[in-house]
From TrEMBL:
Cited PROSITE patterns: RCK_C (PS51202), RCK_N (PS51201)
InterPro entries recorded: NAD(P)-bd_dom_sf (IPR036291), RCK_C (IPR006037), RCK_C_sf (IPR036721), RCK_N (IPR003148), Trk_Ktr_HKT_K-transport (IPR050721)
GO terms classed as biological process: potassium ion transport
Protein's UniProt name: TrkA family potassium uptake protein
Highest taxon above the source species: Bacteria
Organism the protein comes from: Ructibacterium gallinarum
Positions of the RCK N-terminal domain: 1-117
The RCK C-terminal domain, residue ranges: 134-215
Gene Ontology molecular functions: monoatomic cation transmembrane transporter activity
Gene3D superfamilies in the record: NAD(P)-binding Rossmann-like Domain, Regulator of K+ conductance, C-terminal domain
Amino acid sequence: MKSILIVGLGRFGRHMAKKFLEQGDEVLAIEKNEERADSALSYARNVHIGDATNEDYMASLGIGNFDLCIVAIGDNFQAALETTVVMKDLGAQFIIARATRDVHKKLLLRNGADYVVYAEREMAERLAVKYGASNVFDFVELSPDYSIYEIATPSSWYGKTILEKDVRKKYQINILGFKRAGEIHMLPDTDYTFRPEDTLIIMGQNNHLKPLIKS
């Protein structure tokens, strides 16, 4: 269980708070808008109405004691930047901040954020990958160079084993698992035989994955 501080309870902050609580983490949420704060009480017990840009107020919360601090302010970049700076100055262990523009991302990273997320952009890109290729069922970007995909089994692989296809050497990818009838089987043995009804969970460099995810 981790202790999480979330500043901003718009859609992004609200969904983050709900997910952390669902996982059993402790969440303290700060929201400047009284109406948003009141509505959050339906799913979160520890909600404060406050100004996260106020250093004295933030210091009273013991910022350094939180495992993770999230700046989920999306409609006021100046407030998001100031909040990030205040958190870092007060000893925040790790800060995730939300950005909507490239320049905002750069400024947040330069001023204390450890990781910056493009909520709408990243979802848009994930959906574009998922629905833009007929054989892709899911997609997770691990870094700009590496990703995990769930793909349909290539027809040329049917009836062959992982060893016979020499997947790792020939394609330079790793097969993490396969899904059959909705059930995931992780780390199959090299004698696993590819079947048309299975989908494969593969990981590798994007340039090595591209030939397998073309529609």
